[in-house]
Amino acid sequence: MTNPPTNPAPRAAGGHLHAPSAWNVPNALTVLRLVLVPLFVWLLLREGGHTDSNRLLATAAFVVAIVTDRFDGDIARRWNLVTNFGKIADPIADKALTGAAFLGLSYLGELPWWVTIVVMVREWGVTALRFWVIRHGVMPASRGGKLKTVLQAIALGLYLLPWQDLKILHWTAITIMAAAVLVTIITGLDYVGRALRLRAAAKRPLP
After folding, report:
1. In angstroms, how far is the first alpha carbon of the chain from the final one?
2. 3-state SS string over the chain?
3. What angle separates helix 84-107 from helix 143-160, to the nearest 10 degrees?
4. What is d(CA 97, CA 40) in angstroms, rounded to the nearest whole number?
5. Per-residue pLDDT tens for 12-48?
């Protein structure tokens, strides 16, 4: 939801620009995603996290939340409904959802803690970098960052499914998670380089 709208901003009577209301469908979807996080965690950890019914419900909650992430941004850009609330709440909701999934799976012993730590350090580290350079410019999401998000979502979804005794599912989940972690590290380093270049360019004297 952080990308600029593709259509001209809406105009009030008399032709003056006006900001869209925060009470809109994209922001409602973002709030829904935030509300789904505690429900997802409860379903994942309920009864030790090992009953098929609870795991399927947790997976369903996770998938619904991920789908809202796709639609809220598309709707906001298409209908010129990008708001300051959405810019702040959307990435928070994303990180809360995936962070809860990583932490929950590691707590259940199904995902190594080092994977969760690497991902969490990268995610919140990039957020800190964005705030660090915000006076000098904005670092938009890169293609690698978007690929990272997709790989993480798919890998987490596969890990959440209860049928991990099926070798094809188990090894597919491991393979995609390995790819997600690799892309997570590479894109994290790329963001560090971009932040340093942005600050250096801002401090460079004008010719």
Report:
1. 36
2. CCCCCCCCCCECCCCCECCCCCCCHHHHHHHHHHHHHHHHHHHHHHHHHCCHHHHHHHHHHHHHHHHHHHHHHHHHHHCCCCCHHHHHHHHHHHHHHHHHHHHHHHHCCCCCHHHHHHHHHHHHHHHHHHHHCCCCCCCCCCHHHHHHHHHHHHHHHHHHCCCCCCHHHHHHHHHHHHHHHHHHHHHHHHHHHHHHHHHHHHHCCCC
3. 40
4. 8
5. 434 445 566 566 666 778 888 889 999 999 999 999 8
Query: Hey, where are the domains in the chain?
Result: 23-107, 111-206
pLDDT on residue 86: 61
* Residue 166 to residue 62: CA distance in whole angstroms: 21
Whether the full predicted model's pTM is greater than 0.70, yes or no, is: yes
pLDDT in tens, 127-175: 888 778 777 766 666 788 889 989 999 999 999 999 888 999 999 999 9
Half-sphere exposure of 174 (CA within 13 A, CB side): 10
Contacts of 93 (CB under 8 A, 6+ apart): 30, 31, 33, 34, 37, 69
Asked if residue 8 has pLDDT above 50, the reply is: no
